[in-house]
Amino acid sequence: MLEKVISIWMFIRTHRIEIQWKKDRDEQRRLEMKHRKEEDDLYRKFQRQREEEERRIKDEIRDEWEKELERLTHRFEREMQMKRKRDDQNVLTLRHQQEKDDLEKNMTLRRDKKKESLTRKMLEHERAATAALVEKQSHEMLELINEKRSEFMQAESLYLEGDGMPLEEVEPYPSVAPAPAPPALSKFQVYNDPVEFSSVDQIAISVAQEDQKSFTDLVRQLVGRCGSDIEKARTIFRWITVKNLNTMSFDDNLRGDTPMGLLRGIKNGTESYHVLFKRLCSYAGLHCVVIKGYSKSAGYQPGVRFEDNRFRNSWNAVYVAGAWRFVQCNWGARHLVNAK
C-alpha cells in the first residue's frame, strides 16, 4: 500500500513539474521573441547607418573627382589652345588621358581606404551596442528565470511539507550575482578529469547537429539532463566550441528559425564567442560576465609589451560550483597558428 501511495505521489509530482516546465518555457520563449525584435531593430539601425555613411563617402569622393577632373580639363583646354602643331596636341591628349586614369585610380583607392576605416569604426560601435543589448537582455532573462525558480521552489516546499515528505537540503543558486572573489576550491577539487563531462559533452555534440527554433529550445536541450550548474556551463561551452564560428559562412537568405539563423550577431560581425556564451548562460539561469584585457596568445614572444590593440582579448567568468570560474570559448574552439 505504501509503495502504491509513493508511486502515485511521484506521478503527480512529476506531472506538476512537467506542467510548470512547459509554462516556464512558454514565458521564456515570449521574452526571447521580445528580445529578438529588439535585435532586429538594432540590426536594421546598423544597416541604415552603414548605408548612410557609404552614401556620404561616395558623394564626397564624387565631388572631389568632379572638381579635380574639371581642373584637369580646364588646364588641358588651355594648353591645347596654345599648341598649334598636331603632334604637340596628340602628346597633350595622351597626357591628359593618363592623368584622368591616374585620378580615377587615386580616387578609387581613397574611397576604399575611407570605407575600410569607416567599417572598422562602425563595427567597433556596433559590437559595443550589441554587447550592451545582450547585457540588458541577459539581465531580463535571469530575472525571469529567478522569479520562476523562486515560485517553483516555494510551491514545491509547501507541497512536500504538506505531504510530510522530507525536503532535500540543497544550496540554492544565488539570484543576485555574487561579488568577485577567488574560489574556495581549486578546479581539481571540483573535478579531476574532463572525461567526467563525457556524457554532457556528447549531449552538446548531438544537439549541435539538430535544428532549434529558439535559444530557449536550444539551451533546454543542452541543460535539461544536467545535474549541476557546472555541467550546464560545460555543455554550453562544448556546444559553442563544436562550431568554428570564425570559419562559418552564412547564407544571406538564412532563415531566422534555424540554429545558424539564431546566430545573427555572428553573421553581422557584432557578436563573438564570449558574448554568445554569456547570452546562452542567461537562458540556463547562470550568472556570467565578459572580461576584457590582454592575453599571451599565439604570436606572443617573451618580453613583448602589451601596447595598442595587440594581444587584446576577451573571455568569460561564470558562477558555478559556488564560485566564479574563468572560461575561454575562443581558445577552446580554435587551434594555435603562427606559434613556434
UniProtKB/TrEMBL annotation:
Keywords: Coiled coil. InterPro entries: Papain-like_cys_pep_sf (IPR038765), Transglut-like_Superfamily_Mod (IPR053041), Transglutaminase-like (IPR002931). Transmembrane segments: none annotated. Residues 36-82 form a coiled coil. Residues 96-115 have a biased composition (Basic and acidic residues). Residues 85-115 are annotated as: Disordered. Residues 263-331 form the Transglutaminase-like domain. This is Transglutaminase-like domain-containing protein. It comes from Henosepilachna vigintioctopunctata.
